[in-house]
Amino acid sequence: MKGRGSVEIRYLWVDLEEFRLCDINLDITDGEYFIVLGPTGAGKTVLLETIAGLHQPRKGRILLAGEDVTHAPPERRGTGFVYQDYALFPHLSVAGNIAFGLRLRRMGRGVIEERVTAIGRLLGIEHLLRHVPGTLSGGEAQRVALARALVVEPRLLLLDEPLSALDPETREALQRELGRIHQELGTTTIHVTHDFEEAVALGDRIAVLKEERLGDSRREGRIVQVGTPEEIFRRPANEFVARFVGVRNIFRGEALSEESGYKLVSLDPSAGSGHRGVEIVAVTELEGPVHASIRPEEVVLSREPLRSSARNAFRGQIVSISDRGTVAYVTVRIPPDFICMITRRSLEEMNLREGMWVHIAFKASAVHVF
Amino acid sequence: MRALFADKMRVSFVGLGSLLILFVAWPLLRTITASGPAVLWRTLLDEEVRRSIGLTFYASLIATAIAFVCGVPLAYLLARADFPGKRLIEGIIDVPIVVPHSAAGIALLMGFGRHTPLGKAFGLVGLKFVSAAPGIVIAMLFVSLSFLVNAAREGFEAVDPRLERVARTLGASPWRAFWRVSFPLAWRSILSGMILMWARGLSEFGAVVILAYHPMVAPVLLYERFESFGLNYARPIATLMILICLATFVALRLIAGRGEKRA
User: Fold this and answer.
1) Which residue of A113, A171, A245, B92 has the fewest CB atoms within a 10 Å radius of its CB?
2) ipTM of the complex as predicted
3) Which has more pLDDT, A248 or B53?
4) Structural domain of residue B19, as residue ranges?
5) Are B22 and B83 members of one domain?
């Protein structure tokens, strides 16, 4: 017996006027938080809308909990949908929006009120229930949209760039909220985004969707890689994934004790190496298991110990050098492995070679913890 | 930059625009003030006048109701669906606006006249159009349905289709998504289209006079009095019509406007 929220997509083709999806195959297990990652474009939304039953595929099958729903209308699929810009019903109050699906199920007034209040409490929007959508901030509106989708207890939650319309601060808060709610409710979730860090922070697994322009203004989308976040950025399947994900330092770790305004983050060593990872200093409010990223251009590299104000300074051995013309990426094993970007000129001036011992440094403020 | 007289250009625009407003307002004002209350009261007591005004309002209301039942679904399709021949359908909707209304009357006579197939078929169920109230209704319907259909279509176009999609995923059938989301959101446009269509129907003369001179609607009665007895006998009816139409129009606008503020 398949779990209630498992999704199987087999050889799915969707043909729309401007866009088509080709040969999509996905297996999502019950309770998984699954990310579809790809550049901004129509393709990811089309995939979600097809799973929700809003587009009919040309061929292929969609199975929810083992049941073939390929030709079932959207109202029989039990999915919850959240759009990037909320799509709240402007003629209904917040409570009316959340209760929409419950009213369709002809539930009693008391039950509806109870469930609306409960989901409102879970999302921290209890005080907004009497408001109308037009008066809400972006973060509030998106919480209402989430509540509206979750209150009907969908077997599958579909999130279409749910954080992209929000300002950075709200985005971070709501991102944590999504993680918490998923942990609490365990609803199978497919979340579409173009933001890699969002994908890493939330996703159990990631599918990378590539869009290609065909000759005539049409575009088509295919899935080019599926894997854990680590697999995607450590072992990109092809150049497209590598370029899209970019060269970056992303580490798993644990945010520990505080020290005069800074946090210590103990990094897990890179997979495979037997050593303990280093502790770095960062500025963050988070505690416990986190991700940390540092842009390669923020990491300073030198052959001599660095005398600078940077709070993070380590010594390590160069494991690889990748020359990209005007710049070069140097991977230094501390451990874990840090990637530094330097100019071609400094590469030549410092006369760097693999196996050489060097020093790296970066500021605490250059570390993004999420 | 919101001030009316901010610069010389705006001052001259105010002057030019005022000419047009005066052009409309002055004759109306003259007509309204020409007949004293006593004359108006006597006109209102005239059985024939009252009957024709009642008929006009009633026939236009029926025409609007028919257009509502068939036109709102059509408007929804035009807003949401793409199909071959869509441009043609949109063209047909707009035709009544561009043809002379007397020509529209002739066309209706060709379609629904006593000796035409449709006229005979309707005759079997007791509906006749020539020189009868149903003829007035279809004449009004023909010349004014564009207003309702176009307003409703614009209303539906302004509703984000994703709202309907969300409603579907939440468990709504297409019918329920329409009644609970699209229709309420487009309602204000539909209502204002209905008001416009109804008002347009009230004032119809050309098509009605060809299809059904009798029973007389108010514009026809007015014309007949003018032709037979002259200006002095026609004027009080004109005054009455203008006052009643203005009052209803303003009242309906106010009701619709209040709905807007609440939304």
Assistant:
1) B92
2) 0.83
3) B53
4) 1-34
5) no
